[in-house]
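User: Before I run my own analysis I want an independent prediction to cross-check against. Here's the chain; please return only the structure tokens and, at the end, one sentence I can use as a sanity check.
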Amino acid sequence: MLDAHVHVWDPRMLRYPWLDGAPHLNRPHLPDDIDDGGGRVDEWVFVEADPQGRLAQTEAEWVDALDWPGLVGIVAHLDLTRRDVARQLDDLSRIPRLRGVRFVLEGDTHVTDEGGLSGAFAILEQRSLTFDACVHWTQLSALARALDGLPAVNVILDHAGKPPVDDGLASGSGRAWFAALAELAAIPTVAVKLSGMPAEGSSTESVSRHAPDFLRASLDLFGAERSMFGSDWPVSARGPGGSSTSRWADTVASAAEAHDARWIFGATAEKIYALR
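Assistant: Structure tokens:
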């Protein structure tokens, strides 16, 4: 099994300001600590953890140098607020396992500003790199509009757009999430990560009750060949809605009974991130 979305960090090595407000996560989380689902997962894609300031390359180089035999790809931080996107990518491209980049767009105006993405996407297309999009479900329509007409870069929507887990799919907000997600699914270069929902729920009961509906809806829109499993460790393992990797994998597998699990648990990530 390939886990397409994990994080590692060490606050003793690099600064992560957001950890100041997350005491349950504000300690080192290293490869040896990763929950591998009791041995079910043996390969991982690292996704940047939003380091402070201009530490994108430092973080990616640090991760690439870790003793982590199962690491098959790195999605590094790319700061879209800076004008030197090409230079950032020049530096990042020296990292052997670099496969894509991410800039957290949740709550950021860049997601509604095509100009904030167009220059970066032109360079990403030239270099055959992907873009992980991390947005809140209320930004999904804006993201779809921003991607319209941009270069054909493979975009991976993290955490299925952070749906309103506690409200459920049948709620007004759940239906609005589905309609907006359908806009993104209509763009053939967009894929979805079946990840992150435990971090959006207020309790394990809420996640157990509602996450399967959101997972099935995501799969119905994107299909298995544009869907990939991610544990979102350690973020989705901690907190009131937290889930172990094994439990989340079982939840995804149950929701995906009508789909080809080989794509969801490995082949989609291998193809889109060009891991082989």
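Sanity check: The chain has nine helices and eight strands.
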